[in-house]
Design goal:
By secondary structure, the protein is of the alpha+beta class. It has helices at residues 13-28, 39-50, 101-115, 130-139, and strands at 3-7, 55-62, 65-77, 82-92, 121-123. The radius of gyration is 16 Å and the shape is globular.
């Protein structure tokens, strides 16, 4: 069977269920936080995403089996005066890792971003996730830095 990556139709019940299944598997992984998605999130997520015009998700399919997921959101680069695409989640089912699924998802995301006129892709990754970092580096990602003397960018967060 050939691997296929397709954009998700959030309103399609089968595709929405597949997105939630893959995201829940990722959430339960130590690199995703180690806890299942809350039921309230499962109930609203796809309907909420369908209302966001700058959201795009992609599922990697092996036949009828969903095996990988990328959730992305368009933002804007003020320095380039162009949109950018942030990969918010990228997950591959544990049984299908190290088989090129992540690279196929990244390629689909990059193609989508180029079609939308984006100047770059961004993502965040935990420093302890060596496999993901190696995959992203293989695809061409690198740490963000303007001037080596100023150091690399660091992602910070504050829950509201």
């Amino acid at each position: 069977m050939a691997l296929q990556v397709r954009r998700v139709d959030y309103r399609d019940p089968m595709e929405a269920a597949s997105l939630l299944q893959l995201l829940d598997i990722y959430a339960q992984d130590p690199m995703g936080g180690g806890a299942p998605l809350a039921e309230a999130v499962k109930v609203r997520l796809c309907a909420d995403l369908a209302q966001r015009p700058h959201a795009a998700s992609f599922i990697a399919w092996l036949g009828d089996e969903p095996i990988g997921l990328a959730n992305c959101f368009e933002a804007y680069s003020t320095f380039k005066a162009q949109p950018l695409l942030n990969i918010h989640d990228l997950a591959v089912h544990p049984a299908h890792r190290d088989r090129g699924v992540g690279q196929a998802l990244l390629a689909a995301v990059a193609q989508h971003a180029q079609a939308r006129g984006c100047c770059k892709l961004t993502l965040e990754v935990l420093t302890g996730n060596a496999a993901a970092i190696a995959s992203y580096t293989r695809f061409g990602f690198a740490g963000y830095q303007l001037d080596p003397a100023a150091g690399h960018a660091v992602l910070l967060q504050k829950w509201l």
